[in-house]
Write a structure and sequence with these properties.
The protein is an alpha+beta fold. The chain has a single domain, classed as Gyrase A, domain 2. It is built from 3 helices and 9 strands. The strands form 3 sheets. A 4-stranded antiparallel β-sheet has the order 4-1-7-8. Strands 5-6-9 form a 3-stranded antiparallel β-sheet. A two-stranded antiparallel ribbon has the order 2-3. The protein starts with a helix and ends with a helix.
Length: about 150
C-alpha cells in the first residue's frame, strides 16, 4: 500500500470532525433564528414557544441564524431577579438586525431558539449593537437556551 495514502487517511478522518460530522461544538443553523412574525398572525410557519406562551406563525425567511452568534450569557435582570439570556451577534448579524429593525417597525420580531420562540417583541426602534435579550422562566430554561447557542 502507498505510504502517502496511509498518512492521508487519519488526516481526512480528523478533518471530518471539524466540519460537523458529529462534533458537538458545531452549532446547527436552526439553533437560533430571527424571523418576523407573520402579518395578521397567519400564513406562516407555526412555532411553539418556550414556557407557556402562545404559539405564533412566523414568516418563512430566516433573517439571522446561529452562524451569527458570537456569545450567549445568562444574567439576572436587576430589580426583577428574572433570568435572561444575552445573545451577542457578530458584525454581519449586527448589520442585518439594524436593517431589519429600521425597516419593519412596529412589526414583531421573533427570536427562535432550538425551534421554539423565546421572545417576540414589537419593534419600537432600531436595535444597534447586535445584542438580543430573551427572558427565561427559570435558571434551567436559561441554561438550556444558552447551551443551544454556545457549545464548548
Amino acid at each position: 500500500m502507498n505510504p502517502r495514502l496511509l498518512l492521508a487517511l487519519p488526516l481526512v478522518a480528523s478533518l471530518a470532525g471539524l466540519v460537523g460530522c458529529g462534533d458537538p461544538r458545531i452549532r446547527s443553523d436552526d439553533d437560533l433564528q430571527v424571523r418576523l412574525v407573520a402579518a395578521g398572525g397567519s400564513g406562516g410557519e407555526r412555532h411553539d414557544a418556550w414556557s407557556d406562551a402562545e404559539p405564533l406563525s412566523l414568516e418563512r425567511d430566516v433573517l439571522i441564524d446561529a452562524r451569527r452568534v458570537e456569545s450567549a450569557r445568562i444574567f439576572v435582570e436587576p430589580g426583577t431577579r428574572r433570568r435572561v439570556v444575552a445573545i451577542q451577534l457578530d458584525a454581519e448579524g449586527t448589520r442585518v438586525l439594524e436593517e431589519v429593525t429600521a425597516r419593519h417597525r412596529p412589526r414583531r420580531l421573533a427570536v427562535v431558539i432550538g425551534g421554539r420562540i423565546a421572545a417576540a417583541p414589537a419593534i419600537r426602534g432600531v436595535i444597534s449593537g447586535g445584542r438580543l435579550i430573551v427572558g427565561a422562566s427559570s435558571t434551567d430554561e436559561a441554561e438550556q437556551m444558552r447551551d443551544l447557542l454556545v457549545r464548548e
